[in-house]
Amino acid sequence: GIETPEEAMDLAAARGWTSISEQWNDEEKLAELESLAAEDALPLRVDAYLALNALEIGGYYGDWYADREPGPVSDHLRVQGLKIHLDSGTGAILYWESADLLGTIGRANEAGWQVTVHTVSHEAHELVLGAFEAAIGPSGPNPLHHRIEHALQVTDDQLARMVAMDLVPVIQLDGAPYDWVTWGAAAEGERARDLAAEDLSWLARWRDFVEAGLHVAATTDAPWFFPTSGMTDDLARPMDQIAGGMDGRGREFPETPDWMLDDLLTAEEGLRAVTLNAAWAVGDEARRGHLAVGTYGDVTILDRDVTSGTPDQIRAAEVIATIVAGTTLFCADPAVCP
């Protein structure tokens, strides 16, 4: 397993990541990140989201963020987002009551905090859309870039409401929906839910999100989604997001289900999801995700063009160098590293 923050950041840099979106931080984890930032021990850029609930019904942490202002802690650590787990990973269990969710998101939005909400099921999606509509209005705008993690099961009406508010869907292209759906159906007890037995047109609406004009970002859920695989070198890389978006193949069940075929993405769309739109999803699109005068200039150098080739050829891409703030964090070929 990964035992230290230093090891985790080294592995991320070797995979080609220049930033980490740390999506669940309680007070202890936040203190650790702030200590690392104070020691100048965060080579990657870290966006830390503060957890507002445990993975249990009614396990609310309260507004423990209220005594601080959202914003940068150091050059490499930003704390301006809050994380809500609205439902379980299978979508079978709702952790929040509607009134509690509405009040929590409303207070956070009023205080200037970005809110990111984990939703798998259409029931959870319905709850969070209602809460965001109450906070920012049914037609937005969404200046804080409030976002929805996973958005696996979304109805047509819900998609239209997302577009009206310009909410940000953050999807996991390397954790193919077939893996996710099969895993959920095989879960035990009250956590089991067979999403494939419901309306298939609601599942994994990647292309629908893109064509609707949303800022579709992609992240990896590893190692959580592959708990028995370990952090092998071919897991949790940006290239896996791009390739996974193109063929919808999973790691456990490497076939593309028929219901995914109309929602696959192009390589260019997958690349945008891990660069420009990923920067938008953390509210830092002016400085990250692209190269231009005034941006950070964080760069990942690969051994090939990942906008051409087959998905498997893109998966075979190797990281030559990862550079953050002018510092080379990973170098596979000293001849090309600065």
Summarize the model shown.
With 338 residues, the protein is of the alpha/beta class.
Provide the gyration radius in Å.
Answer: 19 Å
Please mark out the parts with pLDDT under 50 across 5 or more consecutive residues, or reply none.
Answer: none
Write out the CATH superfamily name. Answer: Metal-dependent hydrolases
Secondary-structure arrangement, i.e. CATH architecture: Alpha-Beta Barrel
Q: What characterizes the major β-sheet? A: 8 strands, mixed
Number of helices: 11
Structural class: alpha/beta
Shape: globular
Instruction: Encode the helix/strand succession as letters.
Output: HEHEEEHEHEHEHHEHHHEHEE
Mean pLDDT: 94
Share in β-strands: 15-25%
